[in-house]
Automatic annotation (TrEMBL):
TIR domain span: 4-133
Gene3D superfamilies: Toll/interleukin-1 receptor homology (TIR) domain
Listed InterPro entries: TIR_dom, Toll_tir_struct_dom_sf
Positions in coiled-coil regions: none
Protein name: TIR domain-containing protein
Database matches in SMART domains: TIR
Length: 285
Protein backbone atom coordinates (compact mmCIF):
# COMPACT_ATOMS: atom_id res chain seq x y z
CA UNK A 1 0.00 0.00 0.00
CA UNK A 2 1.43 3.38 -1.02
CA UNK A 3 1.03 5.98 1.70
CA UNK A 4 1.19 9.78 1.66
CA UNK A 5 2.08 10.44 5.31
CA UNK A 6 4.51 8.92 7.77
CA UNK A 7 2.01 9.56 10.53
CA UNK A 8 -1.50 10.99 10.95
CA UNK A 9 -2.58 12.73 14.15
CA UNK A 10 -6.08 12.51 15.55
CA UNK A 11 -7.18 14.29 18.68
CA UNK A 12 -9.85 16.44 20.32
CA UNK A 13 -9.83 20.16 19.61
CA UNK A 14 -9.41 20.93 23.31
CA UNK A 15 -5.98 19.25 23.16
CA UNK A 16 -4.80 21.13 20.06
CA UNK A 17 -2.15 23.28 21.78
CA UNK A 18 -0.10 20.24 22.80
CA UNK A 19 -0.75 18.35 19.55
CA UNK A 20 0.33 21.31 17.41
CA UNK A 21 3.69 21.39 19.20
CA UNK A 22 4.11 17.69 18.41
CA UNK A 23 3.16 18.32 14.76
CA UNK A 24 5.73 21.11 14.44
CA UNK A 25 8.47 18.99 15.99
CA UNK A 26 7.64 16.12 13.62
CA UNK A 27 7.69 18.46 10.64
CA UNK A 28 11.05 19.90 11.71
CA UNK A 29 12.47 16.39 11.73
CA UNK A 30 11.48 15.78 8.13
CA UNK A 31 8.56 13.50 9.04
CA UNK A 32 5.52 13.87 6.80
CA UNK A 33 2.56 14.40 9.10
CA UNK A 34 -1.18 14.77 8.58
CA UNK A 35 -2.30 17.56 10.91
CA UNK A 36 -5.57 19.21 9.96
CA UNK A 37 -4.31 22.82 10.15
CA UNK A 38 -1.61 21.95 7.61
CA UNK A 39 -4.30 20.75 5.20
CA UNK A 40 -7.01 23.42 5.43
CA UNK A 41 -6.98 24.30 1.73
CA UNK A 42 -6.84 20.63 0.71
CA UNK A 43 -9.78 19.72 2.98
CA UNK A 44 -11.91 22.66 1.87
CA UNK A 45 -14.99 21.45 -0.01
CA UNK A 46 -14.26 17.75 0.38
CA UNK A 47 -16.71 15.22 1.81
CA UNK A 48 -14.79 14.88 5.07
CA UNK A 49 -16.49 11.64 6.04
CA UNK A 50 -15.22 9.95 2.88
CA UNK A 51 -11.87 11.72 2.75
CA UNK A 52 -10.86 11.22 6.38
CA UNK A 53 -12.04 7.61 6.42
CA UNK A 54 -9.82 6.91 3.41
CA UNK A 55 -6.94 8.85 4.93
CA UNK A 56 -6.91 7.02 8.25
CA UNK A 57 -7.36 3.64 6.55
CA UNK A 58 -4.91 3.97 3.68
CA UNK A 59 -2.73 7.07 3.60
CA UNK A 60 -0.46 6.87 6.67
CA UNK A 61 2.17 4.45 7.95
CA UNK A 62 0.99 5.02 11.53
CA UNK A 63 -1.69 6.98 13.32
CA UNK A 64 -1.04 8.74 16.62
CA UNK A 65 -4.16 8.74 18.79
CA UNK A 66 -4.20 11.42 21.51
CA UNK A 67 -6.55 9.95 24.10
CA UNK A 68 -8.37 12.16 26.60
CA UNK A 69 -11.81 12.60 28.12
CA UNK A 70 -12.43 15.21 25.40
CA UNK A 71 -11.43 12.76 22.68
CA UNK A 72 -13.85 10.07 23.88
CA UNK A 73 -16.95 12.21 23.33
CA UNK A 74 -16.31 13.61 19.84
CA UNK A 75 -18.19 12.47 16.73
CA UNK A 76 -15.25 13.03 14.37
CA UNK A 77 -12.69 11.37 16.62
CA UNK A 78 -14.90 8.28 16.76
CA UNK A 79 -15.01 8.24 12.93
CA UNK A 80 -11.22 8.54 12.77
CA UNK A 81 -10.73 5.85 15.40
CA UNK A 82 -13.02 3.36 13.66
CA UNK A 83 -11.27 3.92 10.31
CA UNK A 84 -7.85 3.40 11.90
CA UNK A 85 -9.00 0.35 13.86
CA UNK A 86 -10.33 -1.18 10.65
CA UNK A 87 -6.88 -0.83 9.08
CA UNK A 88 -5.17 -2.23 12.18
CA UNK A 89 -7.55 -5.22 12.21
CA UNK A 90 -7.04 -5.95 8.51
CA UNK A 91 -3.26 -5.88 8.82
CA UNK A 92 -2.96 -7.27 12.35
CA UNK A 93 -0.45 -4.49 12.92
CA UNK A 94 0.52 -1.84 15.47
CA UNK A 95 -0.86 0.84 13.16
CA UNK A 96 -2.45 2.82 16.01
CA UNK A 97 -0.01 4.40 18.48
CA UNK A 98 -1.96 5.49 21.58
CA UNK A 99 -0.81 8.50 23.62
CA UNK A 100 -2.73 9.34 26.79
CA UNK A 101 -3.50 12.66 28.45
CA UNK A 102 -5.54 10.73 31.05
CA UNK A 103 -6.92 7.27 31.78
CA UNK A 104 -10.12 7.53 29.72
CA UNK A 105 -11.17 4.20 28.20
CA UNK A 106 -11.60 4.15 24.42
CA UNK A 107 -13.57 1.37 22.68
CA UNK A 108 -11.24 -1.02 20.88
CA UNK A 109 -8.10 0.19 22.66
CA UNK A 110 -7.17 -2.63 25.03
CA UNK A 111 -5.74 -1.86 28.45
CA UNK A 112 -2.81 -4.11 27.53
CA UNK A 113 -1.85 -1.98 24.51
CA UNK A 114 1.42 -0.13 24.97
CA UNK A 115 0.97 3.64 25.12
CA UNK A 116 2.82 6.92 25.79
CA UNK A 117 1.83 8.78 28.96
CA UNK A 118 1.66 12.43 27.89
CA UNK A 119 1.61 13.51 31.53
CA UNK A 120 5.26 12.49 31.57
CA UNK A 121 6.33 13.35 28.02
CA UNK A 122 6.97 16.70 26.35
CA UNK A 123 5.97 17.30 22.70
CA UNK A 124 9.65 17.06 21.76
CA UNK A 125 9.98 13.65 23.43
CA UNK A 126 6.86 12.41 21.63
CA UNK A 127 8.27 13.55 18.27
CA UNK A 128 11.59 11.82 18.98
CA UNK A 129 9.78 8.59 19.86
CA UNK A 130 7.72 8.76 16.65
CA UNK A 131 10.93 9.28 14.70
CA UNK A 132 12.49 6.19 16.25
CA UNK A 133 9.34 4.20 15.50
CA UNK A 134 9.65 5.25 11.86
CA UNK A 135 13.39 4.61 11.80
CA UNK A 136 14.16 8.31 11.43
CA UNK A 137 17.16 9.58 13.38
CA UNK A 138 16.02 12.93 14.83
CA UNK A 139 19.60 14.00 15.39
CA UNK A 140 20.25 14.05 11.65
CA UNK A 141 18.19 17.24 11.57
CA UNK A 142 20.23 20.42 12.00
CA UNK A 143 19.63 22.16 15.31
CA UNK A 144 18.77 25.43 13.58
CA UNK A 145 15.84 23.85 11.73
CA UNK A 146 13.63 23.42 14.81
CA UNK A 147 10.48 25.59 14.79
CA UNK A 148 11.10 29.15 16.02
CA UNK A 149 9.10 30.65 18.91
CA UNK A 150 5.55 31.76 18.21
CA UNK A 151 2.75 33.87 19.65
CA UNK A 152 -0.55 32.99 17.93
CA UNK A 153 -2.52 35.97 19.27
CA UNK A 154 -3.53 38.68 16.79
CA UNK A 155 -2.53 41.39 19.28
CA UNK A 156 0.32 40.83 21.68
CA UNK A 157 3.93 41.29 22.71
CA UNK A 158 6.99 39.40 21.49
CA UNK A 159 10.08 39.13 23.68
CA UNK A 160 12.93 36.92 22.50
CA UNK A 161 16.67 36.51 21.95
CA UNK A 162 17.13 37.46 18.30
CA UNK A 163 20.51 35.72 18.15
CA UNK A 164 18.70 32.36 18.44
CA UNK A 165 16.46 30.54 15.91
CA UNK A 166 18.08 32.43 13.01
CA UNK A 167 16.46 35.60 14.34
CA UNK A 168 12.95 34.25 13.67
CA UNK A 169 9.80 34.92 15.67
CA UNK A 170 6.31 34.05 14.41
CA UNK A 171 3.17 35.99 15.24
CA UNK A 172 -0.43 35.10 14.39
CA UNK A 173 -1.53 31.84 12.77
CA UNK A 174 -2.98 30.46 9.56
CA UNK A 175 -3.67 33.17 6.96
CA UNK A 176 -2.67 35.74 9.60
CA UNK A 177 0.78 34.35 10.36
CA UNK A 178 3.93 36.43 9.96
CA UNK A 179 7.37 34.81 10.23
CA UNK A 180 9.38 37.87 11.18
CA UNK A 181 13.17 37.79 10.93
CA UNK A 182 15.64 40.08 12.72
CA UNK A 183 19.37 40.66 13.10
CA UNK A 184 21.71 42.87 15.08
CA UNK A 185 22.16 46.53 14.21
CA UNK A 186 22.74 48.31 17.55
CA UNK A 187 21.14 48.75 20.97
CA UNK A 188 18.87 51.44 19.54
CA UNK A 189 17.88 49.89 16.18
CA UNK A 190 17.54 46.46 14.55
CA UNK A 191 17.32 44.94 11.06
CA UNK A 192 13.98 43.47 9.92
CA UNK A 193 13.88 41.30 6.76
CA UNK A 194 11.51 39.94 4.12
CA UNK A 195 13.52 36.70 3.85
CA UNK A 196 10.89 34.28 5.16
CA UNK A 197 8.39 32.57 2.81
CA UNK A 198 5.24 34.28 4.08
CA UNK A 199 6.51 37.87 4.26
CA UNK A 200 5.83 39.87 1.11
CA UNK A 201 7.12 43.25 2.22
CA UNK A 202 8.47 45.35 5.09
CA UNK A 203 8.13 49.13 5.47
CA UNK A 204 8.81 51.80 8.07
CA UNK A 205 6.10 54.13 9.28
CA UNK A 206 7.12 57.80 9.45
CA UNK A 207 9.01 58.79 12.58
CA UNK A 208 6.85 59.71 15.59
CA UNK A 209 3.85 57.85 14.12
CA UNK A 210 1.39 56.21 16.50
CA UNK A 211 -1.45 53.79 15.79
CA UNK A 212 -3.92 56.64 15.26
CA UNK A 213 -1.75 57.83 12.34
CA UNK A 214 -1.54 54.43 10.64
CA UNK A 215 -4.67 54.75 8.54
CA UNK A 216 -3.32 53.76 5.11
CA UNK A 217 -0.18 51.65 5.50
CA UNK A 218 -0.41 50.28 1.95
CA UNK A 219 1.06 53.56 0.66
CA UNK A 220 4.36 52.99 2.48
CA UNK A 221 7.49 51.85 0.64
CA UNK A 222 7.89 48.04 0.66
CA UNK A 223 10.57 47.83 -2.01
CA UNK A 224 13.57 46.98 0.20
CA UNK A 225 14.49 43.53 1.50
CA UNK A 226 15.55 44.97 4.87
CA UNK A 227 14.54 47.92 7.04
CA UNK A 228 16.15 49.22 10.24
CA UNK A 229 13.57 50.45 12.75
CA UNK A 230 14.78 52.15 15.91
CA UNK A 231 13.23 51.97 19.38
CA UNK A 232 9.76 53.53 19.35
CA UNK A 233 9.36 53.19 15.56
CA UNK A 234 6.62 51.23 13.83
CA UNK A 235 7.59 48.67 11.21
CA UNK A 236 4.81 47.39 8.94
CA UNK A 237 4.79 43.85 7.55
CA UNK A 238 2.59 42.50 4.75
CA UNK A 239 2.31 38.74 4.40
CA UNK A 240 1.72 36.77 1.22
CA UNK A 241 -2.03 36.69 1.94
CA UNK A 242 -2.17 40.49 1.75
CA UNK A 243 -2.61 40.93 5.51
CA UNK A 244 -0.86 43.77 7.34
CA UNK A 245 0.75 43.77 10.78
CA UNK A 246 2.03 46.81 12.67
CA UNK A 247 4.96 46.21 15.04
CA UNK A 248 6.25 48.83 17.49
CA UNK A 249 9.83 48.36 18.69
CA UNK A 250 9.77 48.62 22.50
CA UNK A 251 13.34 47.75 23.50
CA UNK A 252 16.55 46.30 22.07
CA UNK A 253 19.48 44.71 23.91
CA UNK A 254 22.81 44.10 22.20
CA UNK A 255 25.52 41.97 23.86
CA UNK A 256 28.21 43.69 21.79
CA UNK A 257 27.30 47.05 23.33
CA UNK A 258 27.31 46.30 27.02
CA UNK A 259 24.15 44.23 27.48
CA UNK A 260 24.34 40.71 28.92
CA UNK A 261 22.42 39.20 26.00
CA UNK A 262 20.60 40.02 22.76
CA UNK A 263 16.88 40.70 23.16
CA UNK A 264 14.14 42.30 21.11
CA UNK A 265 10.75 43.33 22.49
CA UNK A 266 7.98 44.56 20.23
CA UNK A 267 4.23 45.04 20.51
CA UNK A 268 2.18 44.06 17.48
CA UNK A 269 -1.28 44.31 15.95
CA UNK A 270 -2.46 42.08 13.08
CA UNK A 271 -5.32 43.53 11.02
CA UNK A 272 -7.70 40.58 10.71
CA UNK A 273 -10.23 42.47 8.56
CA UNK A 274 -7.77 42.79 5.67
CA UNK A 275 -7.78 46.59 6.02
CA UNK A 276 -4.62 48.67 5.76
CA UNK A 277 -5.68 50.89 8.68
CA UNK A 278 -4.80 50.43 12.35
CA UNK A 279 -6.63 53.49 13.68
CA UNK A 280 -9.28 51.32 15.37
CA UNK A 281 -6.61 49.81 17.62
CA UNK A 282 -5.38 53.14 18.98
CA UNK A 283 -7.86 53.16 21.86
CA UNK A 284 -6.78 49.63 22.88
CA UNK A 285 -3.02 50.26 22.87
Amino acid sequence: MQVKYDIALFFAGEDRAYVEMVAEQLKARGISVFYDFYEEENLWGKDLYVHLTDLYRKQAKFTLMFISKNYANKLWTNLERKAAQSRAFEESSEYILPARFDDTEIPGVLSTTGFIDLRKKSPVEVAVMVGKKLGVNPFEVKSHSVPPPKNELLIGRAKFDYSNNNGLFRIGSGAFEFSSRWSKASNTSIHCYTDTPNIRGVALAPKDSELENLDSVSIFDYTSRVRKPEIGRYVILQNTNGIYAALKIISIKDDSRGDEYDELVFDYWIQKSGSDSFVEYASRA
